[in-house]
């Protein structure tokens, strides 16, 4: 009875979230990054802020694809805030910003639960209205800004101005050469944390945001001969915001998480999974634009055990095999997924495309096949 009561009064309500507001990338060259996400990821640049608007430190481009919103920010002079982040980490995700209905309440709860403050609640204003913002620290140098934009109708945040897309994809869309969107939402954001600290971060999200454990992997489940990791997933009550958290596990050789932690110089966001309704069209368009995806051996598709487990999916397996798209199935349904190579020179941040058909999972059955593919790449870089 006590447990039932505890469950009913669990803390979702003290930290309600509407979803991921945006992901902020700090990069060495925002102009080129914005071009890359426009051409290779089919995103639309909708807003900008920089020296032309009186912001002397950064050029910032806002790109959207459906409900997904990225901000790429680059320093325009030495010593600008955030320039040290790029020096230390390379291009990376500095802010996983969450939209919340009540910034002050969410912030107060987080701080009372032990979160470190990065910015107390404050207002940003322009002629389009007011946005309330606060920020708290999470793993590494990553932060969660908490944003209430209900009183605002501008293109992004006060100070940003609308701008035209960087490239015009309309002719390619009209000609049937490209899908209207390559993806429409952020599905999950994965963090790599320090060895032995995953459970602390799971507890952090439980305590600070009322997130609950959604799924659990243990080392043996996702170990290959060389690479091993531990992973747990936390999510808000609505399952709109999902944060898998990885830590390296002891194995024969350096794991992919160790490689990330070394090259990112600490914990940080490892991959962003974006949701698509048509992974075939998305992968074809992205490949045509030069995006590199991880290879999957033909043996993966030819394995009779795997074929039996997968059953029928919406396209023939050959269609998946020719594109190296992975399949996983659980009691709720199935999912199709594929992972890009890292999107910067350092072997750190990468992307996942995911098409869900009922499954709420993360491709647990594919972890081993995936890691073996990653290890082949690690070996080529001399980091295995
Ligand atoms: Fe993922």
Written account of the structure:
The protein is 27% helix and 32% strand. The chain has 384 residues and is an alpha+beta fold. It folds into two domains: 11-168, 2,3-Dihydroxybiphenyl 1,2-Dioxygenase, domain 1 (Roll), CATH 3.10.180; 185-381, Roll (2,3-Dihydroxybiphenyl 1,2-Dioxygenase, domain 1). The strands form two sheets. It has a nine-stranded mixed beta sheet with strand order 6-7-8-5-1-4-3-2-9. Fe (ii) ion binds next to strand 10 and strand 14. Residues 19-149, 185-341 form the VOC domain. It comes from Paractinoplanes pyxinae. GO terms for molecular function: 4-hydroxyphenylpyruvate dioxygenase activity. Its EC number is 1.13.11.27.
Strand and helix layout:
Layout: H1 2-8, E1 19-27, H2 30-39, E2 44-49, E3 58-65, E4 68-75, H3 83-89, E5 92-99, H4 103-112, E6 117-126, E7 129-137, E8 143-148, E9 161-162, H5 170-174, E10 185-192, H6 198-209, E11 212-217, E12 229-235, E13 242-248, H7 256-263, E14 268-275, H8 279-288, H9 298-302, H10 304-310, H11 317-323, E15 326-330, E16 333-339, E17 350-357, H12 367-381
Parallel strand pairs: 1-4, 5-8, 10-13, 14-17
Antiparallel strand pairs: 1-5, 2-3, 2-9, 3-4, 6-7, 7-8, 10-14, 11-12, 12-13, 15-16, 16-17
Bound molecules: fe (ii) ion (FE2).
Main-sheet strand order equals 6-7-8-5-1-4-3-2-9
- What overall form do the CA principal axes indicate? globular
Query: How many DSSP H or I helices?
Result: 12
Percent helix range: 25-40%
Give the names of the bound compounds.
fe (ii) ion
Q: Helix- and strand-based class?
A: alpha+beta
The major pleated sheet works out as: 9 strands, mixed
Order of helices and strands: HEHEEEHEHEEEEHEHEEEHEHHHHEEEH
CATH fold naming of the largest domain: 2,3-Dihydroxybiphenyl 1,2-Dioxygenase, domain 1
Number of domains: 2
CA distance, first residue to last residue: 51 Å
Strand content: 25-35%
Tally of DSSP β-strands: 17
Uncertain stretches of 5 or more adjacent residues: 1-12
Name of the CATH first level of the largest domain: Alpha Beta
CATH superfamily of the largest domain: 2,3-Dihydroxybiphenyl 1,2-Dioxygenase, domain 1
